[in-house]
Amino acid sequence: MKKEEQKEKHELGITAEKDEFSDWFTQLIQKAELIEYTNVSGCYVLRPRCYFIWEQIQKCFDEKIKKDGVKNVYFPLLIPESFLLKEKEHVEGFSPEVAWITQTGDTKLPEKLAVRPTSESIMYPSYSKWIRSWRDLPLRLNQWCNVVRWEFKNPVPLIRSREFLWQEGHTVFSTREEAEKEAEKIQQFYADVYKEMYAVPVIKGIKTDKEKFAGAERTLTTEVFLPSGKCAQAGTAHNLGQNFSKAFNIQFKDKDEKSKYPWQNSWGLSTRSIGIAIMMHSDNKGLVLSPKVSDVQVMIVPIFKTDDEKKQILKEAEKIKENLKKQDVRIEIDLRETSPGFKFNDLELKGVPLRLELGPKDLKEKQVFSCRRDTGKKEPIKIIDLEKKVPKVLEDIHSNLYKKAEDYLRSNVSQVKTMPELIEAIKNKKLAKAEWCSDKDCEDWVKTKTEGAKIICTIDEKAKGKCIYCDKKSDQVVYIAKSY
Amino acid sequence: MKKEEQKEKHELGITAEKDEFSDWFTQLIQKAELIEYTNVSGCYVLRPRCYFIWEQIQKCFDEKIKKDGVKNVYFPLLIPESFLLKEKEHVEGFSPEVAWITQTGDTKLPEKLAVRPTSESIMYPSYSKWIRSWRDLPLRLNQWCNVVRWEFKNPVPLIRSREFLWQEGHTVFSTREEAEKEAEKIQQFYADVYKEMYAVPVIKGIKTDKEKFAGAERTLTTEVFLPSGKCAQAGTAHNLGQNFSKAFNIQFKDKDEKSKYPWQNSWGLSTRSIGIAIMMHSDNKGLVLSPKVSDVQVMIVPIFKTDDEKKQILKEAEKIKENLKKQDVRIEIDLRETSPGFKFNDLELKGVPLRLELGPKDLKEKQVFSCRRDTGKKEPIKIIDLEKKVPKVLEDIHSNLYKKAEDYLRSNVSQVKTMPELIEAIKNKKLAKAEWCSDKDCEDWVKTKTEGAKIICTIDEKAKGKCIYCDKKSDQVVYIAKSY
């Protein structure tokens, strides 16, 4: 690399290594033009390349739930304080983070309005009007919207921002069994979205009582173990039991003519998922993403010296582009007036999954020179084979990313039986697998002794030993790690 | 109609006539299960049947602008007060309606945050970072989001609500000409969306300086003249000139190496459009909507007495449903345990465009009995012809609604030359067409003398006479009406 190019790369590329995790991440998302900071701390701009990812996730998940019978709605952003106060645990969980509207124009409001941190308390008063009989159930509604949670922890774009976009499903059933079955189904939908769209494997589990959603009976979670050695909650489905139906007086007349409180779920997947996917796959050169969510999947880089070459090369590039568009490939030609070397670095930084170089020599050989972002592997592809091969390469990039992430997860699980083993595992950025007696004190001690790691979730495996902290018989298998 | 049915209809149907407009409208949208009121005045729930409409509009418009090169983004909901203050006219226009966040949790914020009433002032600080050179232009971004405007006028669901959903496009160009051309294109897109999706004809015009967007040089508008005799602003595109680029210091280095302020547009279409379409087509029986935006386009009503009949009828209904689904018809079977008469009234109330009745006699004749919501016209259709005929009938309903609305508009324009003629026209709920000298005083007098009618817009016709108010030579042809 020439000195000038090196300098260019230094300024434009990422100067932090992936193991200086947070610095690497914040540089990456800005330089890859995904995120822009604003003057409001904790609130960020989702730039077009980033919002595009969200649109793909919306399409995928929206299709799944609509096919399953869920309907979309929109409830107001603003929640009267008195509504928020109705479910005790819920308000305790959320009120420290609520952004309050106290004034409109110059006029003080008679009652403060919360900007929704989540919509249970604005939706369920309507539910109590709509639900009268077992015939009205199940009621399964979802909304795509923004929410605000004014957290005090250090904000990280996408991962922990004070405003984020999400979907929130709110469903009501006659029986506990139906509700539980649905929550499990949604948890699986989330796992599927991560696998199909982000090429990210998740862990499915259940949150401990301490970590569950404020007001829920049980939170089913999907968690991702990231290369930083920390877990991130990826999507959750909450069994609310009858807590909210009692608090909001939702009752239905059942087939036996008796009035009953129904069983509810709420479930959400947010733009945090974008941050998780970026953290999982990206590297020191910049963004790596599945082609499924990349706005540009293939970029043709034309290489030429003379005007005559330029004309020929661009003509061929245009032809390739049109043909691949017909295969539903999102493809563009990089027409910027900069050197090919600059473009290669920049396209790597921005995470374009496949680059096709087309120069005079290639043209003569009726080929392009392809370069995969995920592996860096370079090979010539005959132009005549592009329509067949490119979609396959894109599929293969997705599978390869998933496989790598799965291998990473598998090889970083560390089975621990004692506290020293646990502390060591956490220090080594492992995902510790342990057993636990279900006692909240032991859970607290785990956090204290590991300096911040927590029980991420319990998993569906039979416990057979002793609790990681105390000597009592364990009844749960759990994952323990630090988390975002 | 039997007495009982009459009573049933009285309770369930709409009790106000369409000419008691506002009462009719608020009953209609609630009874047709489009809107639910909440405890926050001016904020409403968009129920599934209503949100479905918005999803169709989003799909249609999103496709148009993406094809035209616009990209979607998401900017923060919350705007620091100091940002909002940057463009003088803009802040004067919006600050009386702003909902202010002054507190998060128990902590008072150092600077108030506005819930976006529109996003110019949060987007353009980023634009000033992103735009450096003519190569960065045009920049054409759009976002789909919610906005809050705490208006003091009496709120009307969908038409004037304190929170609404919309898209806001924000674009930047090197030259005034490009910006003006785009604004005209967007105005046409809005007209097309209304025509293609809602079957509603719009008037294209330009707002007077008094009525234009706060901070704009010029507002291109689409307006709909409604059966209530009032106009509603349907979608607007604003030429912002260089007002905002100067206020937010957006500059670019042009091809001639000189620093220049670029030219900007902003443009928006909101959920108000749903209210406009409902007001335009609906009648005393309830909702009438184009099949293009109806969640259920066709409802099969099975009619039977014996269990044996039921079995046969439902089997055939299911077959019809599956066949029509293959033609992309949104079709359902009304399986509710109520009388056919109840269902007919209810389906009319809810605006299902086409009803197919299927009874034992029809089954024998291998036909269904169809009833169109728009005309009430009933006719048998052979079951074998359904796949061919139903999509055509749905198309015809759309065209018929558009034609009726166009006829209504055409036949209600009243050419006026004097103030008494104008006052008479407004009293008779006409859309007055007049000439105007462009003087703001005359505009104010028109409003005063007509008790609230205003110049809706100027239109692209040559003025040749005198101003409607003064004796001076006119230079504009305008529409005058009351408005929402």
Entry keywords:
alpha+beta; 23 strands; five-stranded mixed beta sheet; 15 helices; 484 residues; eleven-stranded mixed beta sheet; homodimer
Description:
Two copies of one chain form a homodimer. The first copy, chain A, has 484 residues and is an alpha+beta fold. The first copy, chain A, is built from 15 helices and 23 strands. In chain A, strands 3, 7, 8, 9, 10, 11, 14, 20, 21, 22 and 23 form an eleven-stranded mixed beta sheet that branches. The first copy, chain A, has a five-stranded mixed beta sheet with strand order 16-15-17-18-19, sandwiched between helices. In chain A, strand 15, helix 10 and strand 16 form a beta-alpha-beta unit. In chain A, helix 1 packs parallel to helix 11 and helix 3 runs antiparallel to helix 7. Chain A is globular. The two termini of chain A are 38 Å apart. The N terminus of chain A is likely disordered. Chains A and B meet through strand 2, helix 3, strand 3, strand 4 and strand 5 of A and strand 2, helix 3, strand 3, strand 4 and strand 5 of B.
Q: Determine the oligomeric state from the structure.
A: homodimer
Strand portion of chain A: 25-35%
- Rg of chain A (CA only): 26 Å
Percent of residues of chain A in helical segments? 25-40%
List low-confidence stretches of chain A: 1-10
